[in-house]
Every structure is written in C-alpha cells, then in structure tokens.
Amino acid sequence: MANMTLLGAVNDAMATEMRNDDRVVVFGEDVGKKGGVFGATVGLQDEFGTDRCFDTPLSECGIIGTGIGMAVYGMRPVAEIQFLDFIYPAFDQIVSEAAKMRYRSGGEYTCPMVIRSPYGGGIRGGHYHSQSSEAYFCHTPGLKVVIPSTPADAKGLLIASIRDEDPVMFLEPKRIYRTVKGEVPEGEHVVPLSKGRVVREGTDCTVVAYGAMVHICEQAAEQAAKQGRNLEIVDPRTLVPLDEDIILSSVKKTGRCVVVYEAPKTCGYGAEIAALIAEQVIEYLEGPVVRVAGFDTPFPYALENLYMPDVRRILEGVQRTFTW
Amino acid sequence: MPKPNKTTKKKATRTPPAAQRPAAAPEGDRGSPALLSVLRADGTVDAERDPKLPAETLLFLYEQMVQVREFDRRMLMLQRQGRIGFYGPILGQEASTIGSIAATEARDWIFPALREGAAALMRGLPLEVAIAQLIGNELDRCKGRQMPCHYTYREGNYYGMSSVIGTQISHATGAAMAAKIRGDDVVVLGYMGDGATSANDFHAGMNFAAVFQVPCVMLCQNNHWAISVPVSAQMVSETIAIKAEAYGMPGVRVDGNDVLAVYVATKEAVDRARRGGGPTFIEAVTYRRLGHSSSDDPTRYRDEAEVAAWEKRDPIDRFRRYLEGRDLWDEPREEAFKQDIADRVNAAIALAESAGPPAAESLITDVFADVPANLKRHYDDTIAGAGATEADGHFPL
Ligand SMILES: Cc1ncc(C[n+]2csc(CCOP(=O)(O)OP(=O)(O)O)c2C)c(N)n1
Ligand SMILES: [Mg+2]
Question: How many structural domains are present in chain B?
C-alpha cells in the first residue's frame, strides 16, 4: 500500500499498465516533457520513451481519430484530452467511430481505447474548464463511462479500463485530484468495471453520487447523522454499463433516494437513476426520487459556489424525500 | 485482440526533422516566404519598407506597447497575490497586437485569441473594466461568467472569445462573409496562436475565407510554443505562412517583434481586403517569454537560453532605440510616461476592486433571452428561497 493522491494513482495506473503491456501508449497535448497540465503523466516519457508517451499537435480530433486507428490495429491507446471541455472537436470520432466500431463491423474490428479527461467544477475554471458532460457519453451506446472518486478506485478502474475490450471514457474529477488522498495497492490492482461501491451504509435514504460529489455527500451524511438520519451513499463508479443491483437493493432497503451530480439538472445522469428506480422498485418508495444538481446554465466563473451542489442542498434534497 | 507484429522490433524514430530546429531567431532567417522586417537592431529602419508614419502615430504605437507591458506586469502580480485567479501574460508579444490593430479602422471587427487583450484596450475598453473582467465582478462586461483574459467589448467591435482553441477562426471568416454579403466597408481581423493552426477550425476558416474571397486578415502569432509543445513539434511545415499558399491566399511572414513591420504587413492586407482583393494570412514571428499562463512552469520543458536570446529582441526596446534616434523620445519622457501609466493602472485597480460580486440572479440570466420557468423555479427553490450567498458552498477539502 502507498498513500497517494487521486492524481498520483492515475499516474501509477498508467505506469503499471505500460510496464505490463507494451501495446499501451499514452498521448495527448503536453503529456510528454511537461507531464500533463495537471501532472497525470509525469515521468512516463522518461521511463517509456517518446514512442510510448508523446505530445501531439493541438487537435482533439487528431488525438482521438489516430487513437482509434491504433486501437483498431491492436494497440491499447490511452489518450488524454486536456480538459473534458475541449473534447468536442473529437465528438464525431468518439460517437460515430469509436462507439460503433464493434457493432458496425460485426465484431471484426474493435476499439479498445481509453479516453482520459479531467472534468468537473470547483477549480475556478469558468465555462470551459469546469463542465461535467458525462451524460453526452452515457447516451451513446458503445461507450463505457467510468468515474473514480478515490485514489484506490482511480488506479483499479483505470487499469480495468485499459484492459477492457471496448472504448472507455475515463473521467477524472479534477477538483479532488490533489485534495483526496488514500491507500492504494502497489503494482497490479484491478477494480472491475460495472461494479458499484457502497461508500457508507445507512438505513434512511440512499444517496447516489460519483466523482467529487461523493465527498460532499459524505460530509452531508456526517451532518445528517447528527440529526439522527442515517444516509447510505452509493457510488456506481461505472456509469455505463451500470451496476443496477447495488442501487436498487439500497433503495429497497431505505425507500428513499437522492441523486447528486454537478452537471446541469435536465437530462443529466440523475434522470436515468430516477427512471430506473421508478421502473423497477416504485413499490418500495416512501417519497419522491430527488435530483440535487447543477443549474441548466453554462458553468459560471465568479458564482461557481452557488452553482455547485453543496451540503446544504444535499440535505434539503434528503428532506424532500421525507416531506413533499 | 492479437498483439501487433512483434517481428518489427526496430525502434521507430518518431521525431520529425523540424523538431531539431531551435526556435528561429529572425536574424539570418531563410524561411519561406521571406521574413518582412522594417526596424533594424541598431534602431535604424529599412528605408524602402518604412511606412513613414507621422510622429504622433509612432508615439501612439510606442505608448500603447508600454501601457500594455505595464498592465501585463501588474496583472501577473495581482494574480501572484491571489487578487485575481488566473492570468495569461503577453510579455514580448506586444508589437504583434499593437502593430496589427493600428492598421485597422475602428469599424473593422476583431476576433481575438488568448493573447490579444491589448486590442480591447486599444479599442477603448477602460482599464478598470478590463481588470474587473480579470476579477470577475459586477463591473465585468461578461458578468463574472468567464475565466480571466476573456474580455468582450462590443462598442470596439472586439469579439468575446471562448477558451476553445481555434473556434474563433471560422467566426472571423463568417463575419467577413456577412460584411461582404451586406456590402459593408468592414474588414475582419482574426487572430490565432501557432497551436491553433492544428485545430479543425483553422482548416475550415482558411478554406472558407479563400473560397468566398472574404475581406478578412488572419494573423497567427507564432510565439513558438503551445503550452509545452514547440512549434517544431506542432508541424513539420517549414513556416506557418507557407500554408496560406495551399488555401489560395497570400501568406506573409513578418517579424512579430517589429511593430512597424507588423503594421506594414497588416495595412497592406487590410487595404487589399477592403478593395475586394480577398483574405490574407500573416504569420507574426514572435516569442512567448513567460509561462503559458500563471499556472505554468516553463522551466520544465524549455531551455532558458532560448528565452534569453529573445529577450535581446525585445519589441519595445527596439522601437525605443528608433524613436530616440529620431529625437522623438528620451529618458525624461519615458519616466514621465511610465509614471502616468502606473498611476492610471493603480487607479483602475482600486476602482475595479471596489466593485462587488456579480448579482446572484446573474447565475440564470442570459442563458436565453428569457429565463425558462423550470430554471427559475430551480433557482428560487435552491438559492433565492434559501437565502444562499456565494460564500456558501465552499468545498472544505
Ligand atoms: C480545443 C482546445 N484544446 C486544448 C486547449 C488547452 N490549451 C489552452 S491554450 C493551449 C495552447 C495554445 O497554443 P497557441 O495556439 O500557440 O496559443 P498561445 O497560447 O501560444 O498564444 C492549449 C493546448 C484549449 N484551450 N482548447
Ligand atoms: Mg503559441
């Protein structure tokens, strides 16, 4: 075990898989000498050389398009998109090409590629360095979407993503890159995709959250406990394909659910969770499923603290599952 | 999936030949097209290319450059002191913006990239409003919604950009298409960095500009770096200007640290565009002397000797030598002018910092012309009804 930041764990996962498998290559803007704008790839070029870790020209479309070509050829590309906000020039390559490769070729060609990108608010980044656009990708069949919330999960899930046979969007909550630390197993460490985690057991209300929001929900749960309310926090870890059982069995137990996500509320991931619960376990519900989410606005700069879900809003959301 | 053929074990040499080139210093430059320069290092000018600007214009150009440098220095300091969140300095690139904007008319439109904030100031954006943008307060034109260095100034026909590299290039082309369709006597000046030439929108914007023969001048500030990626790893093309040829428009390469040369090149291009002669692409060869932004440490990836070489080619020192040679400027004037700017910047900082945060309601306005009912309800329930303020929600991790 080693104590690491989430960022350090991401770095460790890539280094581990690059040692294990010479098909793994890491590339993107500024990932070489600089080691990435956040430092996620520090040391990789020194250890593995410029064939395995390299800077690309400034073209997200080029990064993903060529990554697909490498994956189709039999490599294991790990492409970094500097901020998720800058992924849209590559959107076509992701949704039209990577996501459909296996299906359209009858399984002859596949695209085992990982697209890593920091996402989310809370770093004073304004519109273009803060967005949480996981829902666009969740809505595209053929893409797996993974979001870690702890260093150990970051390492284990990233290694699992690199080993996965299909394209994975691996979204990293940059707000907690350095602020969340934890014990991480050394060397080989795999956390299987599509398996959620009960972060905290409770009996009164299920709170579903992922990424940085998990930590705010933990704070909310502390406060709720003081008021005699016992929240159960479930982190799905893989948004698609989802571990439905872990959520449904929790809701069956608590009879209540709040989904917390920082993306705009409308058509966000919480809507999917709410619909799933309504379809499958409505008879267990004691109150409405509530979404605590960002506003349906572009991400602000000066007012980002007003925009982001916080402890107060989460507790109000919980309250609404009791009184409506 | 089978592993790729293991028999081809020969180590690929992936580095393009151009990557071995040091950042080209304009002296002895043999790139194509030839580098246009007017000001010589010794402070004299090339008589044939001298635009022969009146003394008052020369002084205006100089003062603008000095003002921008002081503004830049002070804003970086404010950032270091935690009074603004982020800053993207332009040290060393002053001439490229000032010289090119000086060649336009006030009615011409500007589509800036990251390093052309000086253009907004030249077009009349008050210093305190620019600083308010960096702070993100109620005095800010974009209502504290964008990161620092994203100025917007409609009265000055200065477009408010996004952070997404390259997108403004096709917008510049489109505005020029509109000006042409409407028969307006307007030229559009679009800016970009060297890194932006790799973006999809560079191709789209350049090709459309040529196909529709629009009144547009595209100016690329080749400052030799895109964060940590040198221009020599960004492309293998010998110069950036040469790319224009393939699009079917004139490509000009100019010494970007020579304010007169930038003026001459841009003026010629703007005049041609105004006459209906179509677009021009200008590569201004300059250098980013500081980090990419306040978040960047360039010593991780570049050689300080390269920076030192470019310090010797400082655009302001060079122009000052020329002005002094013509007895248009001297040390007392310099001191008085610097004091005047320092005073104005200080006053502007004080004014900007006295403004409050943007109103909470600005969170939900301007998404559309009208606030949708569900957004209003979400806001009322969560913020207004709860009496929440910006101080709430700080994430104590
Ligand atoms: C589409 C996109 N990808 C990545 C980024 C992150 N980024 C911001 S500035 C920059 C480098 C820009 O280089 P250049 O165009 O040369 O402009 P300069 O900063 O040198 O003025 C990068 C990669 C971005 N803003 N937009
Ligand atoms: Mg550049």
Answer: 2
